[in-house]
């Protein structure tokens, strides 16, 4: 069977290779075998392949932070899962056609859920939901401000906020992104710039804006902090600018703005199993009912990995790039 192997850190499409490996053995006690149906290529994966992620795995390495699969075999003592069940994988090595996982490394999802959308469930919707709910208590009508709003997390945040009665100001880099985000449910969309705070406050009209979500870092963090209320919170979860977060003493000392960080891997690692099941059960229902619907630009099979990674690293995309290890279903 086919799998993707990372041999060196560097330019992603040059350091990842499609290789042939043996299929997994029959599942052991407490294990299931899944055929991997789809896996998105996330910004975190690009950073990992470049050697710029928070941690470096030993090489050679099989990447793949998230995936959806279907169970093809179950081992002894597996009671809550059955052959044919569609599941989200919690493994971080999913870019292969089939693999064995512990029953605690998968969560069942509705079979009616769109396969490609469910493939993106583990990271983006969970990140958006937890950032919306874990740092500030938002009331009906409150504003949330985010940058990189055209990202997968950005789309999920727009949709989940709208479903819960929260309004969003969404910051992007290009005017061409404004209408697609409005069509996706954004309350307002602004192109980033030095006068962002003035334009943002003209939209919010003095209504509460307690929370900002930052994927860019650098001076963008400071611009978001200028847009929110005194005592507000900026949650940073990325560094698309390549720079450290910047925030001024005035914002911290006189306005009591809080800057904090979010890393999904750390939060999920500390989350009890029953809470994980509840979280992803609710999010999967949001996929089924259409609340969460992330644009997809292209799908690639594993032997097209170089083209897939070049595409995923390209600026100006209008949707996610997915791998389909067993072909489009």
Spell out the key features of this protein.
12 helices, alpha/beta, Rossmann fold, 329 residues, six-stranded parallel beta sheet, single chain, Quinone Oxidoreductase, Chain A, domain 1, 2 domains
Number of strands: 15
CATH superfamily of the largest domain: Medium-chain alcohol dehydrogenases, catalytic domain
Q: State the helix count.
A: 12
Mean pLDDT: 95
Distance between the termini: 18 Å
Shape: globular
| Share of β-strand residues | 15-25%
Radius of gyration: 20 Å
Structural class: alpha/beta
Helix coverage percent: 25-40%
Give the class-level CATH name of the largest domain. Answer: Alpha Beta
CATH fold annotation of the largest domain: Quinone Oxidoreductase, Chain A, domain 1
Instruction: Write down the domain tally.
Output: 2
SSE arrangement, N to C = EHEEHEEEEHHEHEHEHEHEHEHHEHE
The major sheet is characterized as: 7 strands, mixed
Please, could you describe this protein's structure?
The protein is an alpha/beta fold. It has 2 domains: about 1-120 and about 295-325, Quinone Oxidoreductase, Chain A, domain 1; about 125-265, NAD(P)-binding Rossmann-like Domain (Rossmann fold, 3-Layer(aba) Sandwich). About 30% of the residues lie in helices and about 25% in strands. It has helices spanning about 10-15, 45-50, 115-120, 125-135, 150-165, 180-185, 195-205, 220-225, 250-255, 265-270, 275-290, 305-310; strands spanning about 1-5, 15-20, 30-40, 65-75, 85-90, 100, 105-110, 145, 165-170, 190, 210-215, 235, 260, 295-300, 320-325. Strands 3, 4, 5, 6, 7, 14 and 15 form a 7-stranded mixed beta sheet that branches. A 6-stranded parallel beta sheet has the order 10-9-8-11-12-13, with helices on both faces. The two termini are about 20 Å apart. The model has no long low-confidence stretch (mean pLDDT about 95).
């Amino acid at each position: 069977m086919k799998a993707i192997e990372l041999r060196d850190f560097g330019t992603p499409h040059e350091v990842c290779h499609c290789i042939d490996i043996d299929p997994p053995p029959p599942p052991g006690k407490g294990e299931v075998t899944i055929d991997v149906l789809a896996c998105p290529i996330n910004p975190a994966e690009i950073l990992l392949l470049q050697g710029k992620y928070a941690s470096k795995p030993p090489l050679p390495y099989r990447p793949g932070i998230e995936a959806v699969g279907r169970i093809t075999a179950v081992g002894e003592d597996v009671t809550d899962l059955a052959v044919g069940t569609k599941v989200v994988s919690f493994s971080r090595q999913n870019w292969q056609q089939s693999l064995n996982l512990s029953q605690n490394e998968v969560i069942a999802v509705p079979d009616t859920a769109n396969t490609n959308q469910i493939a993106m469930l583990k990271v983006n919707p969970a990140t958006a939901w937890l950032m919306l709910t874990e740092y500030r208590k938002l009331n009906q009508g409150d504003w949330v401000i985010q940058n990189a709003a055209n990202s997968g997390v950005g789309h999920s945040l727009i949709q989940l906020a709208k479903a819960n009665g929260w309004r969003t100001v969404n910051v992007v880099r290009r005017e061409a992104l404004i209408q697609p985000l409005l069509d996706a449910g954004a309350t307002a969309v602004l192109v980033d710039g030095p006068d962002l705070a003035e334009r943002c406050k003209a939209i919010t009209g003095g209504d509460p804006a307690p929370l900002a979500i930052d994927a860019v870092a650098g001076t963008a963090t400071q611009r978001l902090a200028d847009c929110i209320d005194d005592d507000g919170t900026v949650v940073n979860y990325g560094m698309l600018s390549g720079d450290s977060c910047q925030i001024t003493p005035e914002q911290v000392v006189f306005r009591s703005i809080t800057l904090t960080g979010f890393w999904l891997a750390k939060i999920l690692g500390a989350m009890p199993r029953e809470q994980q099941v509840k979280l992803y059960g609710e999010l999967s229902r949001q996929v089924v009912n259409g609340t969460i619907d992330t644009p997809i630009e292209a799908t690639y099979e594993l032997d097209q990995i170089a083209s897939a990674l070049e595409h995923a690293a390209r600026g100006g995309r209008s949707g996610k790039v997915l791998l389909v290890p067993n072909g489009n279903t």
